[in-house]
User: Fold these one by one.
Assistant:
Number 1:
Amino acid sequence: MAEMEVKESSKKGPGVKKSKKKSTRVDLTPMVDLGFLLITFFIFTTTVSQPTSMNLNMPKDTKDPNLDTKVKESGSLTLLLGKQNVIYYYYGNDPATMQTTGYKNVRDIILKKKLSTPANDLFIIIKPDKDATYKNAVDILDEMDINDIPRYAMVDPTPDEYSKIQQTEAASGIK
Amino acid sequence: MARAKIKRGSTSVDMTPMCDVAFLLLTFFILAAKFKPPDVIEVVTPTSVSNKVAPQKDFLTVTISKDNKVFLAIDPNIKGDVLDELAKERNISFSAQDKANFLNAQFVATPISQLTQFDQLKPEQIKGANLPGIPVDSTNNELASWISAAVNARMGETLNYLIKGDDASKYETFENVLSAFKKNDIYKYNLVTSAESIPEGSELYKKNLEQQRSGKKAE
């Protein structure tokens, strides 16, 4: 690689031993490698740390029930976000058929619903209860993005649903 | 005819200049990098697949800490106007010194009644744990007053409303923050998140792929 050649010194008289002169040059290739490695590292770490943001548009609160969005019962899926990262969900209009799931499996449930209903009827209702965390809410909104759900809404759970959740939580020992 | 002699040059190159350049660049990047000032309030943001960069101009950032306290950071360019507007709306007067202190403070972290007191503190004295935060209850929603002051101070110009919540903060607090915005007829927000890659095979992933393909065809 780099200069390593040692020049033969001119001939001295017979019997005089040649003294080898070592070159003072050092191979700098590894050092260059290291330098560029550090540069790439710094460039990557500086650009990645920029925070991204997710847009959230909320509807205007209306008092007039005629202006409320109408949802087809057959096309609706209600997700209730509870304590300890648990999701309760039911189809249509009957909270009694509530089932339990977690954040890992909710994508399959949403996807199944999406594929089994006509695109225009699909409506997902998200109801985070008081004990859900902010992360839960963002995760589920993100899930809407991931599954490409065009219509969804975030509303408060009704008192019925809230008491149902609390019963279920008490029964399964979630504090 | 005598052939021209081809000199055999050595294949090794002197690496010194390249090494110089590499380290010059390295020093440049290290020195030019702006270090983020350490956050007084530690917030771990949730992840999302969104790839939009959070706006850095004309912002109003509402931070929700993990113990459900609410803080407000205002773009330094409009901070003074917002304070003037707030004083007008609430019928309080701030002295010139109070205003200067307010402009120096990184964020609003107390009820308005304690504002001047808090702004006198030096940065070293501010510790995240013992800050009271801005009240956002339904009975006393001071955040709404701040937002209305900001909106009125910036008549006609749009502001970016960022909400930066901690993973562990309760949804209830988030809801209170949203209601403060809704009181001022603001319905568009940016939730600050950290980036996450789109899961492979998901609907959005397929959609993006399709868009890429059709985009290439169009070209």
Note: The mean pLDDT of chain A is 77.
Number 2:
Amino acid sequence: MINLSKKGMLLANEVVKLVIALIGISLLIYLLFSIYYTSSQDQKLNEAKDTIGRMKDIISRINSGAVSNEKITDISPPSWYLFSFIGTEKKPNSCAGENCLCICDKVIYDNTLWFKNRQLNECDSSGVCVVVKNLSKFNEFEINDPSDGGTNVQISKVGSNIGVKKIWV
Amino acid sequence: MFKKGELTTQQIVILIILVVSFAVILFFLLRLNLGSETDQEICHNSVITRGKSILPVDTFPLQCKRQYVCLSVDGSCEVMTKPEVIKVKTKDEVYKALADQLAECWWMFGEGKVDYISSEALSKNYCSICSQISFDNSVKSIFENKSFFDKKEFYSYLSKNKISDGQTYENYFLINGILNYPGKFGEVDLSKQYYSLMGITSKVSKVGWVLGGALALGALASIPLTGGVSVIAIGTAVGGAVVGGSAGWIASSYLLVPSIKGPSGNFYIPPSVIEVTSSEFDSLNCDEISTSS
């Protein structure tokens, strides 16, 4: 009789137990991380809403002719980005096909291989956008933490359009 | 010889089969997309809970999310990312898709029977955007390559066609007689996006009445038409909201939304199709949007 089964069976047993344990631990880590991430994202979303609200007010004032430009210092949330979606480019659903300004987290691997429209979906689901019909295109930029110097933004009238740029005060 | 508690090959195979079966069932459940149905149920339940509660309504937040819907002939939709695509082939199918969106919205927010807003010193309009609707380029072919259709045709569809429980859409939305509106109904521009929305006007609290809040009821000032339906019109010539008078309508005015008094005693904006980020939307004077995007 061949005496291989015992050794082999022991190994299979240990592997199965190890795999089950690893799956359990991974699920637990995922759950804890999700809870932390959700609460952190909610806080950032509220900060983004505040910032976009302030920017919207400034844009209204500029469009009404009350002022020609205005600055906002130390915008938040840190590590998120300011995006502009203009003209015929694809926009987040919340922009309703109009030019818009968004504050959202930046995704990696967008529009490569099977990753399609990830940035737009991110801005829709976890970001905040405001429609600015006469917005000029600007390059996206990151919002820095105040400890790293913060990020200041100037909103101004450029011809008949609204320009947004990062400035160093 | 096996030790006690060791897994046999048979047990391992059973375990693997169980895991694979679970994955297959999960895959099909996700494919069924039961989530969207659940979102509507969650919203409806939160509205009912607020309406029935003896506690202050703010104790129970509304849990309603905006849906993104795209009407398309060929199933493609370039103007939105990940929308719910509804395939349409005829005008009636376009109107039915819109009517169903409105009916769903009306149902979610209690069909005018639920007061889910607390009384306030000053009356305010609370709007709920249930879905954002876009039209794919292919839809133009249904309308003889025109880029718009008359809203009156849509209201006519609502008055003639029945929803599943036997009553017409017009009856269900409590807008009987809407076709008697003497002015223009406006157009739906297929290149724009539209909200399917409804609204409720808060009642004036006792404090508000004492403070002379009765005047605030004018927030949704309206002129009765027939069957208790009133209308709010907007004048394109003059801009801003204009309420039509019984003496005659401004020639260029068109219907914005009807205004109705629901069984709950509140005034409501029945489910309507309103252009996104437009002067019409601004004219509704929505103090708060009670749905999240």
Note: Residues 5-167 of chain A form one domain.
